[in-house]
Amino acid sequence: MFGTKKKANSNENIIDETIADKSKFVTVGFGAFLVSILLFVFLEIYTSVKISTQNATLEKDGGVEEKSREMLMQIALKGKDVNDLEYKYIKEIMQFMSPTEFQEFKNSISTFANPLNVQINSLNEIKSKKLDIYEIYAIEYEFLSKYENFIKLKIKLSEINFKINLVEETIKRYSPKSDKILANGVIHAYVFKDKDNLLKKNEKLIEQQKIIEEKEAEKKASSKN
pTM of the entire structure? Predict the structure, then answer.
């Protein structure tokens, strides 16, 4: 029997206290072992239930892979929209002048005026006005010509590829007996200072979008035919 020991030439019923104390540790250890087994079984059951729940959720949602694919598709579509919007913005900026293009435009006015017999009495830059993303450069002018020739000059100026506006315009007869008029006013030119850098930075995008535009134009033309 655990916890007892016979001794030669002594009382056989004497209990070895050391062995008795160790038996207590054995009992406690066995109890802890049982608790560990029960805990292990509980964790196994809990894990199985969690995995089953997760699998059911994945099946219900159509799977993580499918969700990821749909998300990537949405991002790709939004990316296309971003490119379209950015290109529309760039196309709008293309109608603005760079500072260099403004100077070229100012110098070109005489090439429009001379063939139409429009005399340039003055053509001077005045103070520009800065707005949110662009500036308005201003040119104060005085032209001497026949009225119809001045109108033709205005038409020529309106045909350029940039945004301009003629403001503060006054027209009066040069003299009581003259068939010519004096036209005074201000030309507003819309200037985007960083235009060159913007176009260079987006050169690839611009080229791609132009190809798309050309293909769409071809499709429209073929559908009409």
Answer: 0.59
